[in-house]
Amino acid sequence: xxxxxxxxxxxxxxxxAKELLEQGAKVTLxxxxxxxxxxxxxxxxxxxxxxxxxxxxxxxALASWAQAAYPQxxxxxxxxxxxxxxxxxxxxxxxxxxxxxxxxxWARARGKNLGLWAPEQIQQREPDLATTFSxxxxxxxxxxxxxxxxxxxxxxxLQRQPEFELHCQEQVEEFxxxxxGAVSVLTLSGNRFSAAQVAVCAGAWAGRLLQxxxxxxxxxxxxxxxxxxxxxxxxxxxxxxxxxRYLIPRxxxxxxxxxxxxxxxxxxxxxxxxxxxxVAMATGLVPALAKEAVExxxxxxRPGSPHGIPFIGRVPGWDNLFVNAGHYRxxxxxxxxxxxxxxxLLLGQEPIVDPVPYDPLTPRxxxxxx
Length: 370
Fold this sequence. Notes:
Elements: E1 2-7, H1 11-22, E2 27-30, H2 39-42, H3 57-81, E3 87-88, E4 92-95, H4 100-110, E5 115-117, H5 119-125, E6 136-139, E7 144-145, H6 147-159, E8 164-167, E9 172-177, E10 183-187, E11 192-200, H7 206-210, E12 220-229, E13 239-242, E14 245-249, E15 255-258, H8 272-285, E16 294-304, E17 311-314, E18 321-325, H9 331-347
Parallel strand pairs: 1-2, 1-11, 2-8, 4-13, 11-18
Antiparallel strand pairs: 3-7, 4-6, 5-6, 9-10, 10-11, 12-15, 12-16, 13-14, 14-15, 17-18
Helix pairs in contact: 1-6, 1-9, 3-6, 3-9
C-alpha cells in the first residue's frame, strides 16, 4: 500500500509526488486521462500572477515562494532528465496598467523592482510593438516556463523513481475511510486503491469529486483558449501584457497569445470567435504578426475558485483525505509552493507559509471567481 495516493496528474499532482518521493514516501498517482494534458499543459507558463497587486495576500505568499524556487527546479529537472523546461527570464512589459498608484505602492512594500517606461523605452526594448501606447511598466524579474516541456521533464523524472507508481485512465468515483484510518479509492474501471493518505490534486475536476463530501470546496471549470505563432523572424523579446491579455516569447522564437475566460462547464473545444479575438489582440500589439499564420489553437479548463485562493488542506470531516486545487489562473505560478505546502501538511512538517488561509474551512474574502 502506498503512503500517499495522489488523484490528478497535472503540475500540482506531479510536483506533490516529487516532494513526497524526496522525503522517502511511496507514492501512487491516479490520472483520469494522461498526465500533464489538461490546464497545466494549456496555460501560458508566466511565472507571476498577471496583475499581482490585485491578488490577496495568500496568493502573493505562494507566488513569491514559487518564483524564487523555479530556477532551481528547472535546473534540477534539466540535469536529471536532459529535457530542459526552458525557463525564460525575459521580463514582462505591462502596457498602460490599471490602478498604477496602487501597483507602485504594492511593489515598494514588497521590494519589487519595476520601471516606469515612456514610449521611447518601450520601442527600444520591443521595436516590433505597435507605437500607440502612452507608457508601460517594466517588471524585469518575471519570466515564463515552457510548460509542456516542464511537464514532460517532471514526468520523466518521476517515472525513474522506484517508489513511484502511475495509473492512467483511472477516473475516481468514490472515497471510503477504512477502519485503519487509511483511505480507499474506487475508480470507474472497478479498480480499488488504498493509501495511508490521499491528496486530491484534480484541478477543475476537484470540485465535482469532492462536492458530495465537502460543500466548502468550490472549484469550477473556466475555459481558456490560446494561440501560438511561429514567426519567420524574432518579433518579441519580453512578455507583453495589455488589458488582461498577453503575448509570451518562447526561446525558439514562437509567440503564445492568450487568453479567454469562459464559463462553459466542462466544454473544452476551441472556437472560431476566440481565434478571431486573440488574432486581433496579437496583431494589434505586434502588427507584423498579421503576416504570420497561426500555428495552433487550443483550450484548457482552469480550476476556478472563490477569490482565486486555492484549497490546500484536509477535507472537512476526514482525517487522511486532503485537497490541493482551485489555483484558477495561477496553477503554474503557484505550483512549487503549493506542492511544498501540501508535503508539509501531509508529513506534519513546519509549513513554508501560514496554511490557514488555504484551509477548506477558512472563509474566502468573497465568493467571486477571481
